[in-house]
């Protein structure tokens, strides 16, 4: 396991955010990222169309629990990518154990579960988002119509131990969308990625994010010590150009050998 102290970020020049006290109350996403209109309004239902899914994804969104309560662009990009991979290779997610970090509304994990009923998905986030994620999982994968829902909602705070309900050793795929925005959480997220991908373990980590602030580079400097990044080149023709123009990037992370 990697100790968080090994991941201390370079000292920030910003005086507004402490990088040393991870227990401090978290400022809102909007106070840290340049303002941009959310893709949805507060407390409403929205539909996300993902090619390859028979049904639209119904999402209750609620800006109340913070930034994760609405759907962000990287989540939609990552959802479309896994759906495309599944379309060209239907066994891609078959029987896979999938973990989503910082799931927010639950979108990406729900899409994974809808694409492949034999997959087992854990959509995770902080406790404040769990009710919303549960509502969304139930909207799209109602327990009344499926014998057993294959998307589980779980609290997982980066930097902490993996909850015992998640079979960490057996996770095959890790998905993370729009999780780079809050500097004090950078070392926590890197530690979590290291915990999920110990040296030598075969695991696919798909990491999608939207470039926002210069400070986000610090995350990638920390990450580089432990992971190589490979740009996803096998997305549907033309997709990458579209999302890159919107500042969204999608990479595969591979743990370095040492
Ligand atoms: C910008 S939102 C992205 C939500 C979703 N992945 C999407 O693309 O719509 C970032 C998410 O990371 C979660 N997050 C932030 N810090 C976290 C931490 N320390 N542990 C777990 N989740 C965290 C937030 O609660 C939020 O849901």
UniProtKB/TrEMBL annotation:
Feature: compositional bias, Low complexity: 8-20
UniProt cross-references to Gene3D superfamilies, sorted A to Z: Vaccinia Virus protein VP39
E.C. designation(s): 2.1.1.-
A Gene Ontology BP annotation from the UniProt entry: methylation
Binding site for S-adenosyl-L-methionine: 72, 102-104, 125, 158, 177
SUPFAM superfamilies the UniProt entry points to: S-adenosyl-L-methionine-dependent methyltransferases
Compartment(s) where it occurs, according to its Swiss-Prot or TrEMBL record: Cytoplasm
Region listing for Disordered, in residue ranges: 1-42
Similarity section: Belongs to the class I-like SAM-binding methyltransferase superfamily. METTL21 family. EFM6 subfamily.
HAMAP family recorded: Methyltr_EFM6 (MF_03198)
Function: S-adenosyl-L-methionine-dependent protein-lysine N-methyltransferase that methylates elongation factor 1-alpha.
Name of the protein: Protein-lysine N-methyltransferase EFM6
